[in-house]
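Deliverable D4.2, example record:
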Amino acid sequence: MRRTSMQLAAALIAGGLAVAGCGNSLQLGAAATTSQGRITSAALTNQVANLTAAYAADKHKGVTPQRGVTQVPQQVLTWLLTFRIVDKLAQQHGISVTPADVQTQLKALGATAAQNKIDTDTFISAAGGVPPDLKPQIGRYFAILQKFENRLDGGKAPTAQAGQSALQVRVGHAQCLAAKHLGIHVNPQYGVFDYANFSVVVTPSRLSGAGSPSPSASASAKPRLTPDC
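Output generated by the structure prediction step:
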C-alpha cells in the first residue's frame, strides 16, 4: 500500500484537508452549495449528531479525539466538501476508482486502526473528526488521491523528503484548482472557507467575546477567502 493510506494517521491527525470557497449566496436550507448541488443544513445536522455520538463513544473507550470536540459542524462540513473536491479533481483528470479500490483503502484503514489497538470507526472519528457512517467516502477519498499521486510520480513514490514535499505541493495545487472550479459558498451560520488552511473555520466575529481562542481559532482569525492556486 502506498503512502496515501499508510500515512493515514498522520494525514488525519494533522488535519491536512483540501477545502475551499467563498461567497454568501445560498439556497434556502443549505449549509453550503457547490456546482454539484447543495449540502443541506438537515444533512449537516444529521452528520454532526453522528460525530458527536462517536466522540461520546470514543470517550467511553478512553480515546481522546485529536481534533477536540468543539466546532464539530465546521469539522463535518469540511469533510463533506472535501469529498466533493476530490470528486471534482477526479473528474478533471479522468480518474475513476472501483469498489475494490475503495475496499483496499478501507482495509488499510483497518490495519492502521488495529496497530493503534482500536476499531476502524473509532480511529476515523477520534483521529480525523469523521462521522463513522462516512467511512465509504473516506475510502473513496484516499483511493482517488492514491491514483492521482500514481499518475504524478509514475507509481514510484519518492523516498526523499524533498521529493515527497514536492509531490504534495502538486497534489495541493490540483485540489485548490478543483475547489476553485466548484464555486463553493458556505452559510455564514457555519463560518467561512479558509484557503490558507483548506478548512471551514468559525468567522472572527463569532469568536469575539468568547474568551481566549483555541490555537485553531487563532489560526483562522484572518482567513484567506480567495484561492491562490
